[in-house]
Amino acid sequence: MIATVAEFKNNIGKYLSLVAEQDIFITKNGKSSAKLSSTKQSKVDIVNSLIGIIPCNGEDLGIKQVKAERLAEKFEGLDWHQHHPRHIDEA
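RE: above sequence
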C-alpha cells in the first residue's frame, strides 16, 4: 500500500493496523521515502527476500554451510580459543 506523508500523519492508527497485513510505502513529493513493515515477518518471506542476494554458484547451500561461512568471515584472524576458553581441550 502507498500513502503520502500527510495521509500517513493524519491516519497513523489506520496504517499501524494495516501494516500487520502488508507493507506501507510512504511517499513525499511523489517519491518513496519510507517503508513501514510488520515486525512479525514469516520465515518464508525472509528467505524469499534473500533470493538473488546469496550467491550459490549452482550449488545447493545448506543452512549449516551458510552459518559456517558467515562465522568464518566474522571471526577471521581471531584466535577462537582466546574468545571461547571453554572449548580448549585440556590435554
